[in-house]
Every structure is written in C-alpha cells, then in structure tokens.
Design goal:
CATH topology: Immunoglobulin-like
CATH superfamily: Immunoglobulins
Structural class: mainly beta
Number of strands: 11
Oligomer: single chain
CATH architecture: Sandwich
Largest sheet: 6 strands, antiparallel
Helix content: 10-25%
Shape: elongated
Radius of gyration: 16 Å
Strand content: over 45%
Order of helices and strands: HEEEEEEEEEEE
Number of helices: 1
Distance between the termini: 39 Å
Length: 132
C-alpha cells in the first residue's frame, strides 16, 4: 500500500511540477520554453519567497533569452529582468516580495522570454498573498 501511495505521489509531482509556455524561437528544434511553478506560490505580506524559473531549450536553440517579469501592484520581483545565456544551465531564482499592504489573495505574474531572433514565449504563474 505504501509503495502504491509513493508511486502515485511521484506521478502527481511529475504531472503538476511545472508549467511551460508555448514554444518561442524559430520553430522545430530551434525553440525554447519558459518553465514556471505549476502550483501557486504562497507568500505572506511583508515577506519574501523564492521561486525557480527556467529556460528549456530545444536541441538546436543556441540563443540568449531575455526574461522579463511583470508583477501586479503589491508584489516586487528581483530580478525583474535578466538574460539567460546559451551556455547557462537555464535556471533563474526569482525573489518575490509582498509589500506589507499587498492585496490578499491570488495574484498573477507574467514572464516573457525574448530570444535574439525569432518569436518570444510568455507564460504566467500564480502567487497567493496571505496576511502575516
């Protein structure tokens, strides 16, 4: 029984572990995706939470990707903009700070990945703000 539960848990984590954007880039294997947390990230008013965002590259995608984050009022993201170079692992740690008076409830952050050439990729992820 424990083994079945463990397998089910691993499958669930694999299924909901991340959310990916539509492909950007030029097409085929010359594409990339922006990968964000699939589950809402919880942060309390006046506190900071760190999340991992990554650039998943196709086999032939060798461009730098500029990531830009748009946050709603009451949330600040650091860095708000960064570039992932072709040789980089692709992971970026974002620090999300909720203001002391940030609106409570679910908020949406937009992340746009723009390559040197080709189409951009955009996705969103949710942050739930709660009282301290």
């Amino acid at each position: 029984m424990n083994r079945i539960l463990a397998v089910a848990f691993v499958a669930l984590v694999a299924f909901v572990g991340c959310q990916k954007s539509e492909p950007g880039g030029r097409g085929g294997s010359d594409t990339f995706k922006v990968v964000v947390p699939a589950m809402s990230t919880d942060v309390k008013q006046g506190e900071i939470q760190t999340v991992r965002v990554s650039v998943e590259r196709g086999a032939d995608f060798k461009q730098a990707v500029k990531l830009e984050v748009k946050a709603p009022t009451g949330l600040q993201v650091d860095p708000g903009s960064t570039t992932v170079q072709p040789g980089d692992k692709g992971d970026v740690q974002l620090k999300i700070t909720a203001a002391k008076d940030a609106p409570l409830g679910e908020q949406k952050l937009m992340i746009k990945g723009t390559p040197d050439k080709g189409e951009s990729a955009e996705t969103e992820f949710k942050v739930t703000v709660s009282a301290k």
